[in-house]
Specification:
The chain is α/β, with parallel strands linked by helices. Helices cover about 45% and strands about 10% of the residues. It has helices spanning about 30-40, 40-50, 65-75, 80-90, 95-100, 110-120, 120-140, 170-180, 195-205, 260-280, 295-305, 330-345, 345-370, 380-405, 415-440, and strands at about 145-155, 165, 215, 225, 230-245, 250-255, 285-290, 310-315.
Length: about 475
């Protein structure tokens, strides 16, 4: 066989036969995922849901099934931006097979995803999320009686250096320059340099930024908030209600980042109950577990008086020497707080808190860290909500795949490769150990004699071959 050489400059083919086009057998995970979607009739159903938002005549659009599958690719491949999703789908033959696109067909660009997202309202995205919940209920992978609730922050597509004041719309540099003139550091007509502004801004006291006074000119729905790593960014707040029995996300809500946990807990739980009912489930939520950030006497009272849910909200520790004082508060709040305290100190309450800290935080890790949803690339809370809801839908599909086929991500098959390698290594080690043990037994003498001395043969000896007497021959001795 001759050596093949790569040509840097190669003339393109004028005609290519269709059988000569490269075809991928498909990734095992995406093949199973397509089978799961086809079993539930996803494509026909979603086209029926989207049909009212398209014209009757005209050029056919990108099928809705391809649009939602591309969002699934973003979650399973850990890609947050639409440009990255479009590039990945156009580059991979296995993903093109998952999308159901022919080899001669161009994959959708990122602008097409933006156009479809603008065309389809939030109700359609919610319906797709509920469709997956209904599929999970049919597969016996949705319970919903016990929920764990927690929240995190998502970095918005806006920069802190671009914020402006709500009243005067002046940016940060103009604002600090006005403070310098007010304190007499600058004259009325003097213009400071960037270094002078930074130096003055660094040394002035009471330097705080409030959402009531400042806003982003590009994304007015984002709010100034402290992220999980301690940095300050413009952000949104994402809150999950997770079924602690199956780890399915029953509700994934997006709020403004300055909304406290105590303000959104009841809304999220009520949305979770609505989603369960609309997915065809008759289950009534019974228990709600949350961390100490949700603990407040009015919240516990509202849950006790106006909802059928039992709360298991962790209670924050008071400073040393301080106790609760109920002289200026109604007795209903005291009773609700004490009842919640009794529940969280019991064995069931401790178990629910352990499950909440494990399973709800795991959902954030899958969606925000490995799923590419920690930073949003969209403007506006409704657009962010659409995108995040599809990530939650993809997370639930991953839980379905793990429950049905023992693989929740495309990289999940790697665990079986590693397990096979470990089993093979263990088999080799065991075989070597058995060989050494048997060798030591066979070599052990008995009463001064070798017990494995072969018996004297009764057969006549074989004739000797003179040629076998050569030095080094393996027949020497015969």
């Amino acid at each position: 066989m001759a050596l093949g050489r790569r040509n840097d400059e190669r003339q393109g083919e004028l005609w290519i036969a269709t059988p000569n086009l490269p075809v991928s057998p498909g990734h095992a995970f995406y093949v199973k995922l397509n089978e799961l979607l086809a079993e539930g009739g996803f494509d026909a159903w979603v086209e029926e849901q989207c049909e009212p938002y398209y014209a009757k005549l005209g050029r056919p659009s990108i099928p809705p099934g391809i649009y939602f599958r591309m969002l699934l690719v973003g979650y399973f491949e850990g890609i947050g931006s639409q440009r990255g999703i479009a590039w990945r789908c156009s580059d991979s033959l296995s993903l093109r097979k998952f999308l159901g696109m022919a080899s001669t067909q161009e994959s959708p660009v990122h602008a097409s995803l933006s156009v479809i997202r603008e065309r389809l309202p939030l109700e359609v995205h919610k319906a797709v999320f509920l469709w997956v919940l209904k599929l999970a209920r049919e597969k016996k992978l949705l319970d919903g009686k016990t929920l764990g609730v927690d929240s995190t922050t998502l970095e918005a597509n806006a920069a802190m250096k671009s914020i402006v004041r709500r009243d005067t719309e002046e940016d940060w540099q103009d604002y600090v320059t006005g403070l310098m003139r007010a304190e007499g550091v600058l004259g009325p007509d003097e213009k400071p340099t960037i270094d002078e502004i930074k130096r003055f801004d660094k040394t002035r006291p009471n330097k705080k930024v409030s959402n009531d006074e400042w806003m982003s000119p590009t994304d007015e729905d984002s709010r100034i908030a402290k992220m999980k790593d301690g940095t300050t960014h413009l952000a949104y707040k994402a809150e999950h209600a997770v079924d602690l029995s199956t780890e399915m996300i029953v509700a994934a809500e997006i709020y403004h980042a300055d909304y406290g946990d105590t303000l959104t807990l009841e809304d999220t739980v009520q949305m979770a109950q609505t989603n369960l009912r609309e997915s065809g489930s008759d289950v009534q939520i019974e228990d709600v577990a949350a961390d100490k950030g949700y603990h407040a006497a009015p919240v516990l009272t509202d849950f006790a008086d106006h909802t059928p849910y039992r709360t298991y909200v962790a209670e924050p520790a008071l400073p040393a020497g301080r106790t609760h004082v109920w002289t200026d508060k109604p007795p209903e709040q005291r009773d609700a707080v004490y009842a919640n305290r009794r529940r969280i100190r019991g064995e069931r309450g401790k178990g629910l808190q352990r499950q909440r800290s494990e399973k709800v935080e795991r959902s954030f890790a899958h969606m925000c860290e490995t799923g590419g949803a920690r930073r949003t690339w969209l403007w506006g809370i409704e657009k962010v909500y659409k995108r995040y809801l599809m990530s939650a839908m993809a997370h639930n599909l991953g839980r379905l795949m793990r429950g049905l086929f023992r693989m929740g991500t495309p990289r999940g098959l790697q665990q079986y490769v590693d397990l096979l390698a470990e089993l093979s290594c263990a088999a080799h080690v065991a075989q070597a150990a058995i060989g050494r043990a048997l060798g030591s037994i066979w070599a052990r003498p008995k009463s001064g004699e070798d017990i494995f001395t072969p018996p004297t043969s009764t057969h006549p000896p074989l004739p000797r071959d003179p040629a076998s007497q050569r030095k080094g021959s393996f027949l020497t001795g015969w």
